[in-house]
Amino acid sequence: LRVEMQTLTPHVYWAQRHSEIYLRVELSDVQNLDISVQDNILRFRAQGHGAKGDNEYEFSLEFLEPVKPEVTHRSTQRQVNITVKKQEHSWWDRLTVQERKPLFLAPDFDRWLDESDAEMELREKEERINRYLNQTPALFFPEFLGLKKGYLFMYNLVQFLGFSWIFVNMTVRLFILGQDSFYDTFHTIADMMYFCQILAVAEVVNPALGLVKTGVMPAMIQVVGRNVILFVIFGSLEEMQNKAVVFFVFYLWSMIEIVRYPYYMLACIDNEWKLLTWLRYSIWIPLYPLGVLAEAVAVIQSLPIFDETRLYSIPLPKALGQSLSFSYTLQLYLVLMFLGLFINFRHLFKQRMRRFRAKKRKAH
Fold first, then answer.
1. Which CATH number fits domain 11-112: 2.60.40.790, 3.90.79.10, 3.30.1360.40, 1.20.1050.10?
2. pLDDT digits (tens, 9 = 90+) for 235-256
3. Active-site residue set
């Protein structure tokens, strides 16, 4: 009679980060250890003391996504720790290709993090590295750190003063003139708004040069979007300058910025006000979508004006017609505007979650 020996599998626990997979094999006094990764399958074989006593144990795992063939491991008296690097930095929904989890596999709750916690851990590591890098030039050139903070503080101060002037001016005029203030907003506010929005180009340059840690793309989406509304829609069309939508666009912009810029000012001098921090990470939730909605109304109101005046129209060959109205470009821009809203809203929401999660951790 032929007797088939049952394959013995040890208890295996797993966890992940964006770049690595961690495996903990419950096997003590390990001998003849053989671990390899080939064709994206990890194979493990060893002799040791496990759930079935002293025996030879083995298992294999076919990973969900590609991993690097190099495997690092460390054996202790109680277990074998294995680290496998992912080919790409990403978060996996599960460990293996097969949806049904193997019976011998379980989460390693000692190392388990969900995706947002892993992002926070990664950010904390980056911040520690950045703090070291920021301190390094200051050791030899103490004025470097002072110049950087001084520049950022002054930039945020100037923007805060500019948008505060806009907000206070519009609020006072609203109380004095009522609805009449809607229709001459552009003529009284535009010069200061031009100044602030031209200066806001620095918000794209600063992260590109590494002066601040925010992303370049979210800043570019906001700066370019606002400048299209200000310079192209309002600035080039006199017919738009007397419309009430100008008031709502400018007012919503200034309400957001009179909170954002003082928050950054205090951050430059390593200071924080709890109320201001809460407003910085909360006030955008209603105001940002309302601002985009007001901008969309301005674009829609400008479409027939561009069709009529043929301003910025694109010349075409005679066979195709005289020109292509700029309004078609703006219709495409409307779609991109709401796509930008989604991207920036998601970015800001993640910022908010990370900020308040970090504060809770510090409190505990």
1. 2.60.40.790
2. 999 999 999 999 999 999 999 9
3. 288, 295
